[in-house]
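hey
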């Protein structure tokens, strides 16, 4: 779709670039305080091999709705500490934490779908969970999502986007991603530009209730989309509009080179729609996705 002057102003005029605002293996608990302001004492007990103490701490956290609790219990179950391993129960516990937007648990759920452990193998579901964790700057998820795009498994084969996610993983400390990103850049530089370019729209991943989390006066959304390969370099313009008034007003907008980001909205109940524009600045063209609708309640 060619850009009119009005659309060009809307899409390119003054919006800040938002670049997001090793191998598969289960994530372990993090020893950082996280955004809850207190350290995970269960992790300290776990690291000291006081497993029953860790289990009790994590059980108490889980009962209070802290996702680190369910995540820790899932880890103990996965390792078979204090009982037999049960992959299905491990997945249930990791999902409980993942649905609270806890990135290490989202990564572990993705790994289980990716490998077919505890659930039927589903690369597309794995890609969706990797993307949600990647939006939280979880480097291992960014790396694995890049691999899926590189191989065209669970996501469209898209070397340019794989490069972007490898670069993100490298920036988050994964050395192996640096080599992968360099190889992708070499491959992309070897391609000859086509005589004509047709953009293919991205496909937004429907927002589940769990991908919408309200804390205090803010709501955090995990926005992800499937991004086909393009014939020219592109970026993505993400737009959320409020349906509370006519005409609809823009509630959030951002540019990104990635295929997932976090968006924040007021926590007040409201109805919204969002879409992704695949934008090719070099040729002044864009392709919008279909609208996807959600509510904050």
């Amino acid at each position: 779709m060619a850009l009119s002057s009005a659309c060009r102003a809307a899409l390119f005029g003054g919006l800040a670039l938002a670049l997001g605002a090793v191998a598969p293996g289960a994530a372990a608990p993090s020893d950082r305080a996280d955004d809850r302001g207190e350290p995970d004492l269960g992790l300290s007990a776990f690291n000291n091999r006081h497993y029953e103490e860790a289990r009790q701490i994590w059980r108490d956290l889980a009962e209070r709705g802290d996702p680190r609790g369910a995540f820790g219990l899932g880890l103990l179950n996965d390792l078979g500490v204090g009982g037999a391993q049960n992959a299905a129960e491990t997945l249930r516990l990791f999902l409980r934490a993942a649905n609270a937007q806890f990135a290490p648990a989202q990564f572990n759920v993705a790994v289980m779908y990716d490998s077919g452990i505890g659930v039927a193998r589903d690369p597309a579901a794995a890609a969706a969970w990797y993307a949600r964790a990647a939006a939280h700057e979880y480097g291992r998820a960014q790396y694995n999502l890049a691999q899926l795009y590189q191989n065209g498994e669970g996501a469209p084969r898209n070397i340019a986007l794989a490069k972007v996610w490898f670069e993100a993983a490298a920036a988050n400390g994964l050395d192996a991603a640096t080599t992968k990103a360099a190889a992708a850049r070499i491959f992309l530089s070897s391609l000859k530009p086509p005589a004509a370019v047709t953009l293919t729209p991205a496909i937004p991943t429907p927002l589940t209730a769990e991908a919408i989390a309200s804390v205090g006066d803010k709501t955090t959304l995990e926005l992800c989309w499937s991004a086909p390969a393009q014939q020219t370099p592109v970026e993505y313009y993400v737009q959320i509009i409020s349906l509370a008034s006519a005409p609809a007003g823009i509630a959030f907008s951002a540019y990104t080179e990635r295929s997932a980001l976090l968006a924040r909205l007021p926590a007040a109940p409201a109805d919204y729609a969002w879409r992704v524009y695949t934008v090719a600045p070099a040729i002044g063209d864009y392709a919008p996705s279909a609208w996807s609708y959600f509510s904050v309640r």
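The chain has ten helices and nine strands. Residues 27-120 form a domain with the Serine Threonine Protein Phosphatase 5, Tetratricopeptide repeat fold (CATH 1.25.40.10).
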